[in-house]
Amino acid sequence: MNKTLVIEKDKLEENIHLIQGTVGDKQIIAVLKGNGYGLGLETYARILNENGIHFFAVSEPEEALSLRESEIEGNILLLTPVTEQTLAEKLMEQNVILTIHSYENAKLYENAALNLDIIASVHIKVDTGFGRFGFQDMQEIPKVFKLKNLSFDGIYSHFSCSFEKTYRITKKQLQKFLEVLSYLETLGIKIPLKHIANSSAALRFPETRMDAVRIGSAFLGRLSYPTELKLNRIAYLESKILTTSELPANHNIGYANTYYTKKPTKIAVIPVGYKDGYMVEKSRDTFRSIDILRYIYQDIRQLGKKTWVEIDGTKYPLLGRVGMYNIVTDITGTDIKAGDTVKCSVNPILIDNQIPREFR
User: Is 255 tagged catalytic?
Assistant: First the structure.
């Protein structure tokens, strides 16, 4: 395969140390969903281990089991509730911490733990406004503490809008979570590990950090809202030029005839396209109307601006649309040739998992 996702290990480690210094003594739970945000689950987890992080969170049971099979050191929290007892038992046998989102869910875990004759570690999920899963009625939560063979080691929630500008929605969610904790304490229920802050909240709003913070996109230097912390973008897609050629003036390049050369132009064809995840965006349908308008405004501002690739330290503009398999760049006036190395800026989580990952 003529392409590789390159992760710059020194930049990643610098991000890790910057974040560790910012959150201080708060425990970091590294979120490794989506194949470690596209970096490669097991290798990424080992680097985090090397840098003092020994608590991980994943979204799929297969991710948790893969980490255990790879002998990654530390705790593993599965953020998604499990609804099948046999799968719950398999995860419990591997010391995976399970998420409880309802009393019925907790009963299933109790049955699994009793069947295995073990004490299973669990965290309670509270829905403070995300609307996905978690307890909504805090008076339902105390009932789970009457169940057997479960160790309630943590309680958490998740912010829906920590990238907001005003700290309004996030503040309301935090207050609701604190009300739940206060209610449980009045009943004599104390839970060791409390966490709600994701990357944006942990770096922007110190009061949300609690006992632990969950860090995912910040390690990659990719946040949806700027912070004072100067984090590095840590990855790029590397490929090699497939062919070069000379095109005359007024010659179309790519689909839909959206670009014509203005003069004789030397081009390079690079075997990278949207099939690989290049220039693909995350869905925008999860944002509020004001966020959609902000994106439209940014799109208008981007009209006429160039997208670039880097060859031997110099940026060259792309010409025409991104194809499924290829892109074209303007290399007029250079001696660039087929086989030369090209760097493309990418979001790692969107890059096809079949493309090799390499830490350098």
Answer: yes
